[in-house]
């Protein structure tokens, strides 16, 4: 179903909900499966004092507000806010010092949601017209992103998750209800019929695909928990993740090709200390990139200048399947940005993302003289497992290397 058709469909739902006549339930008018699957207002237990229009227009597949860990003063964004039920419930939780944005592509839904907010006497909300693939908010604006059975409707889910990451502040949370599919579903026709029956008209992601797209966007700490079984491998689920925390004024995000020059500059500054590597000159970007995994690459940027001030990346240690979960990593911090906790935040984000990706061992080699790096890694759960004595010459001097590794307790 095309974007315009989806907007038209939900606009019709909004107009039905706005009639206010008893029995005018847009969900049941469209498909009887909503009530059977705990879709709509049936998925909530705290709807007292909400306007009838918000309940009638509730078309979600869960209750993201119940799992979003909202706090007093939080700024929240609801992707695909519809009639506003999740916005109104969130507004209660964040209180007068917080704010909730509702984003929807349907002008009729926005009109309904604004009317519902006015009826409820809620003043800490703002409803925005736009698409979830192009959120009309600046970066690092909100503390929490929620959504209720909407991301599956997007025809560009990667863009949607990238936008969610962009608008979150460091340390922000992502908590949505959505429709997902088991990774191995033998009968794809049955799966598509089930998706259509429950309103998932653009097709759902598999659990593995969802996890991969969240990682690609920059999220870590990913959990995908099925909550209802709709048959044929299709489930409602709670999807949670986070944007890595870091010191104020900085951001951790995936490394991009356009970062090449700055990444290599930080690399060279590290090599110039004489204690980072046997290498003395940073390689070309082509050599750097080809030697490392396409994922598990992150940078820390100064948000005032967008300057890259630290990076981390991983390489496979072997092409043999038995070593699929073993990587070697490198981490470099600009010497001018030390003592701010950036290295620790970056390494912690890398470790969490590695576990999300199924990595069970991270290893590296560190010169014994690089005491700062050793302390950093010990704080992140690494241990020294041995010494390679006089393994190579560096500026004409034979040097030892301490071998360090971290075994994941989670994988």
Task: Summarize the topology.
Layout: H1 3-19, H2 26-30, H3 33-36, H4 52-56, E1 75-79, H5 85-94, E2 99-104, H6 107-120, E3 125-129, E4 142-148, H7 157-167, E5 168-181, H8 188-197, E6 205-206, H9 207-217, E7 220-231, E8 234-242, E9 250-254, H10 260-271, H11 285-290, E10 298-302, E11 307-316, E12 326-333, H12 342-356, E13 361-366, H13 371-379, E14 383-394, E15 397-407
Parallel strand pairs: 1-2, 1-4, 2-3, 4-5, 5-6, 12-13
Antiparallel strand pairs: 5-8, 7-8, 9-10, 10-11, 11-12, 13-15, 14-15
Helix pairs in contact: 1-6, 7-9
As a percent range, the share of strand residues is: 25-35%
Question: Kindly, what is the distance between the CA atoms of the first and last residues, rounded to a whole number of angstroms?
Answer: 38 Å
Rounded to an integer in angstroms, the radius of gyration calculated over CA atoms is 24 Å
Question: How would a textbook summarize the main sheet?
Answer: 8 strands, mixed
Q: Output the helix-strand order.
A: HHHHEHEHEEHEHEHEEEHHEEEHEHEE
Mean pLDDT: 87
Q: Given the C-alpha coordinates, what overall shape results?
A: elongated
Helix content: 25-40%
DSSP strand count: 15
The residue ranges in which pLDDT falls below 50 over 5 or more consecutive positions are 21-38
* Continuous helix count: 13
- What is the SS-derived class? alpha/beta
Summed up:
The chain has 411 residues and is α/β, with parallel strands linked by helices. The chain has helices at 3-19, 26-30, 33-36, 52-56, 85-94, 107-120, 157-167, 188-197, 207-217, 260-271, 285-290, 342-356, 371-379, and strands at residues 75-79, 99-104, 125-129, 142-148, 168-181, 205-206, 220-231, 234-242, 250-254, 298-302, 307-316, 326-333, 361-366, 383-394, 397-407.
